[in-house]
Specification:
The N terminus and C terminus are likely disordered. It contains 24 helices and 22 strands. Strand 14, helix 14 and strand 15 form a beta-alpha-beta unit. With about 625 residues, it is of the alpha/beta class.
Length: about 625
């Protein structure tokens, strides 16, 4: 369940609805381009990540004169989109990116899809060919509205200068309210060049767009009754709790009920990892305790979560004993994958606050759940099957140890952004997340190349915080050019490359399911003249590459140098820092539920199937 503007305390002034209208506003005569920049200023957009080109060029001229909007010139449009997403995830505000038409716009498709999957408030502004040329296959024309229709919350094609201001206001409102998501504003070049009048606030016309914020009281009471009657409840917390700013309310509910809490990949930090009620992350690579708790539960209270396949495993075998309370701000998510016994539509903060009151009322009437037997089982699983790792026998660097030490040595409040793959899962397990909005990753889309630009966006939005990008050598090679952007714009992020010389997660699957046939997953080098892997060659050399982009770069291969390298990186704050950690290539992510199998088949480690006995099914 995503944020509302009330829940997040959005800073930008809200335009009034059509029926209210502005009571008094100063009317100015501007170009459409000037109207666009003024609108961005008025909605509170302080940072725009972008790259100019022909059709958006008229907007870049007045942008040069703005003292309220900082533009950060990226090296690739995909970087602009992910940076805007990282900015939004770290700050809770709407992220903004601006690019030109055609290939500029289509390069945004991946970050837009990423933002849609993870419910990130994003406004993407694209230039379009002149309105008379639309549909003629003009130079650098692409139907970006049509292309992005399935992956945006809404999109607009603007062909008149007078429509720009209210469209921008509507875009920010839609992106940031209800279930947040990406909104695209495609503006024809002649609309940017034409003259118009500008007044603020504009009127908005959004018939039918009325997200339900307040949950139904009867459903809340039913949920509270089930919680008090359950013997094996689980609070299944998704990213919507974070987006609703409901983390304080969640802690109150958890401690009031005494139920175990499991936080999804998108919800890490919404409930402190160190809290005794926290049983870990669920899913394909979740903790044994979290996965098993959901499987054995008699009640699952899903808050801002969507029962996605990575959590449920084989859907028809997921949580066979459980009744389901499913609360989400998006009614389309409720019952989509798992039928809900008690469906609740509403904002997470409102839902949880009302649940607290309803559970307190149950307690007043003497209806208090007894979960002592449940916690006996949970604690036994937690003690028997903790998430851990073995150090390599050859004395090389363990990737898990690298990531764990980065987390332990980082300043308090550090924001971590991860790419996708093994390093993402290790970062989710071996760094402790005690605060919300300190863990950024691409959860739904699983986008390689996310980490570096997302970290850049987070640091731009939260300059006082330390920001670490935990990246793989595969992910890093997709978007590392944004380190140049960081170096030239005083955005001193820190990047840890977990360099195992391969596409690690794909290689792990090849090891487990493809008889160790490593087809096209080796990255570090090609064969030499004799057909053997060239020892000692690194193509590219990440240290030299990073230095060429204006970064301070270190290579770390010896565990004895690990803490020194991390401390050195933490001490440098005047430029980006990159550490190339050369790690063991055979390290694997455990626990694991193989794709398409039941969560009952969770493996604690390779060849280790947990033994749960029989008593937990009583």
């Amino acid at each position: 369940m995503p944020m509302t503007e009330q829940a997040t305390g959005a800073q930008h002034p809200q335009p009034r609805a059509r029926n209210g209208g502005p009571s008094s506003a100063t009317v100015e005569h501007l170009t459409g381009a000037q109207s666009l920049i003024r609108s961005l200023e008025e909605v509170g957009a302080d940072t725009v990540f972008g790259l100019p080109g022909g059709c958006i060029l008229p907007a870049y001229d007045p942008l040069m004169d703005s003292t309220r909007v900082r533009h950060i010139l990226v090296r690739h449009e995909q970087g602009a989109g992910h940076a805007a997403t990282g900015y939004a995830q770290a700050t809770g505000k709407v992220g903004v990116c601006m690019v030109t038409s055609g290939p500029g716009a289509t390069n945004l498709v991946t970050p837009i899809a990423d933002a849609a999957m993870d419910s990130v408030p994003l406004v993407a502004i694209t230039g379009q060919v002149a309105s008379a040329a639309i549909g003629t296959d003009a130079f650098q024309e692409a139907d970006i509205c049509g292309i992005t229709m399935p992956i945006t919350k809404h999109n607009f094609l603007v062909t008149r200068a007078e429509d720009i201001a209210h469209t921008v206001a509507e875009a920010f409102h839609i992106a940031s309210t209800g279930r947040p998501g990406p909104v695209l504003v495609d503006i024809a070049k002649d609309a940017l060049q034409a003259r118009t009048t500008f007044s603020w606030p504009p009127t908005m016309d959004l018939p039918g767009y009325r997200p339900v914020i307040k949950p139904h009281a009867k459903q809340i009471r039913e949920a509270a009754k089930l919680i008090s009657q359950a013997k094996r409840p689980v609070l299944y917390v998704g990213g919507g709790v974070m987006k609703a700013g409901a983390t304080a309310e969640l802690k109150v509910l958890a401690e009031l009920t005494g139920a175990p809490v499991t936080t999804t990949l998108m919800a890490l930090g919404s409930f402190p990892d160190s809290h005794p009620l926290h049983v870990g992350m669920p899913g394909m690579h979740g903790s044994v305790t979290a996965v098993t708790a959901l499987q054995k539960a008699d009640l699952i209270v899903a808050l801002g979560a969507r029962f996605d396949d990575r959590v449920t495993g084989k859907l028809d075998s997921f949580a066979p004993y459980a009744k389901i309370v499913h609360a989400d701000i998006d009614p389309a998510e409720i019952g989509k994958n798992r039928a809900a016994d008690v469906p609740i539509v509403g904002d997470a903060r409102e839902v949880i606050a009302d649940l607290v009151q309803a559970v307190q009322a149950e307690h007043t009437e003497g209806n208090t759940g007894d979960y002592s037997a449940w916690w006996k089982d949970l604690n036994r699983w937690r003690e028997t099957y903790p998430v851990g790792y073995d150090l390599p026998e050859d004395g090389s660097l363990s990737p898990q140890q690298v990531i764990q030490r980065i987390g332990e040595l980082a300043p308090e409040g550090t924001i971590f952004a991860a790419g996708v793959g093994q390093h993402q899962m290790w970062a989710s397990h071996f760094i402790q997340y005690e605060q919300p909005a300190t863990w950024l990753n691409s959860g739904g889309a699983g986008t390689m190349g996310y980490a570096v630009p997302a970290a850049m966006g987070a640091k731009a939005g939260m300059p006082e915080r330390a920001v670490w990008a935990i990246d793989g050598d595969g992910c890093f090679q997709m978007t590392n050019q944004e380190l140049t952007t960081c170096a030239l714009n005083n955005i001193p992020i820190k990047v840890a490359i977990i360099n195992n010389g391969a596409l690690g997660m794909v290689r792990q699957w090849q090891t487990l399911f493809y008889n160790q046939r490593y087809s096209n997953t080796v990255l570090h080098s090609g064969p030499d003249a004799d057909g053997n892997a060239a020892k000692g060659t690194r193509v590219p050399d990440f240290v030299k590459l990073s230095e060429a982009m204006g970064c301070y770069a270190i290579r770390c291969e010896d565990p004895a140098d690990l803490d020194k390298a991390i401390a050195e990186a933490n001490a440098i704050n005047d430029r980006p820092v990159v550490i190339d950690f050369i790690v063991h290539e055979d390290a694997m992510v455990w626990p694991m539920v193989a794709a398409g199998t039941s969560n009952d088949e969770v493996m604690a480690a390779r060849g280790v199937r947990p033994d749960f006995g029989d008593n937990e099914d009583d």
